[in-house]
Amino acid sequence: MKDKGFFAEFRKFISRGNVLDMAVGMVVGAAFTAIVTSFVNDIIMPVVGLAIGGIDFSDLKIVLKAATETDPEVALRYGTFINAIISFIIIAFCVFCVVKGFNKLHELNKKEEEAKPAAPVAPPADIQLLTEIRDLLKKNS
Questions:
Q1: Which alpha helices (H) appear in the chain, and where do they start and end?
Q2: Quick one: which of 25, 30, 61, 63 could link to 77 by a disulfide (CB 3.0–4.6 Å)?
Q3: Can you tell me the distance from the alpha carbon of 139 to that of 69, in angstroms, rounded to the nearest whole number?
Q4: d(Cα 43, Cα 65) in Å, to the nearest integer?
């Protein structure tokens, strides 16, 4: 059976090593997101709320329809949205720092490679042959 089409391309994609790296990155990213969310909700936002008068951002909302015995409340929870924006900014800053550090290391490695002297280029075959003939003549004289 020939490998053609979408599934063959998918199998080829999966067989590359980068897929495993990507999966590990996503798992670590999800864990990092949980840490940042907790950091924002449990450390940053209480301090910010205290600084602006004791407001808990997660409670900020605009009630569109009050809750009744049969229906839940309908509200725009903009405080939660503010928390999400702050989380995004922190995550984006951390990713920026990691990428900046990686680029700096890559740049340093590139400079080190450029600073190394290049290996001497072998002379052409005819020059090598003439050199050998010269050395033999010196040796026999």
A1: 5-15, 18-39, 45-51, 78-115, 125-140
A2: 61
A3: 110
A4: 31
| Whole-number Å distance between alpha carbons of 109 and 73 | 58
Number of domains making up the chain: 1
Which residue reads 């020939």 in tokens? Answer: 2
3-state secondary structure of 2: coil
Is pTM, for the whole model, over 0.85?
no
Pairing assessment for the beta strands 74-76 and 62-65 based on DSSP bridges: antiparallel
11 Cβ contact list (under 8 Å, min separation 6): 3
The CATH number given to whatever domain includes residue 63 is 1.10.1200.120
How crowded is the C-beta side of 81, counted as CA atoms within 13 Å? 7
3-state secondary structure of 65: strand
* Per-residue CA distances from 86 to 43, 49, 82, 89, 96 (Å): 12, 13, 6, 5, 15
Digit-coded pLDDT (tens) for 16-62: 767 777 888 889 888 888 888 888 888 887 888 788 777 777 788 99
